[in-house]
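Model it.
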Amino acid sequence: MTESRSACLTRIPAMSIGFRMWLSHERKALGSCHTMASIVFLPLLILSFSALSAPVDASGPRKEGTQSCTRYDIPRSVLQGAFTFAGEVIPFQRADVRDRVRLQLNFLLLDARSVLTGWLMGQTRYAWIFEEEFKKQQVPLDFIGFAAVLSGLNSGQSNRMKGVGWWALDTVCNSSDGVVLTEDSWHDDRLDLELSTRCFALRLKRFKQELGTASWLTAAAAYVTSVKEIRDLATSWKTDRYWDLPLPENADSLIPRWIALKIIRSHPEEYGLKIKESPPLVFDQVTDLLLAKDLPVSEIAVITGTPPRAILELNPKIRPSSGKFPATVAGKALPHKLAAPRGTGWTLVNKLKENGYLVEKPKQ
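Modeled.
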């Protein structure tokens, strides 16, 4: 998606405004030839805008050429109060901060509106899983919304960061991260909601500690880029404050977009949105499942009377190309954790035992 340029107003210095007024005067003088004048002078006007429209702000280093979309604005109640996000107050008293968040607000409401609405209605389906992990790891709950911007508001595909799953994990976590994830021909733990969220939270905390910053926003920027890149920028610009660092495009846009997402979620009526929340994803979880033979997803679907796609949604780490829980990996028995439709857990266990799939009765 490209960010909307409709209904946008670029701040133009006096010289550029004067040029535009002069051009308007010339059009009137030319009369019927004003169309040709537009063709001749429009490139010059565009050049004047791009060369002269950079905002001047002495409060810290900035990226140039910030635009403000005026169709949708930040609610007055947000601007007038102390808007706390991810443990810190967003400095909306600064014009550049307002502009950056407003731009992303309009991107979401104009360019990404249909996808945004679907995500807002569906986020409650998975949010409780994220919330449980973040509470355990003492990560701000605002990071629940970070999943949406990381995955481009589409959890099922790889995204602009070239990562996998809700948290755009480029690699699996290992023992140094505090949780071990694996990825092979039959599954990818980066798509497991619980494990991937734990991996993300632990990495984020580690990045924050390595940077020596109190800011979760700066840690989030490091997650989008790298700890080294943020550390080098902080050294060059003598600040580790997110809003003062000239950042690469992803980090510069995704964090304001994340904030804009919360504003929209908290004030849907301001933007004409009617959000009907989906019921939470609930299931029976069977653990320590030791198999005597490979267990196809199709067999689980038949036993529980559920479509195979629904079983894969409950167990997203299973690769569709494999479609099974293997009994052994590299010759070793592998205990499994399996999610079954709500109310079918013990029925599934008993049927699997009856059909010769189980080595022993698992815990539930």
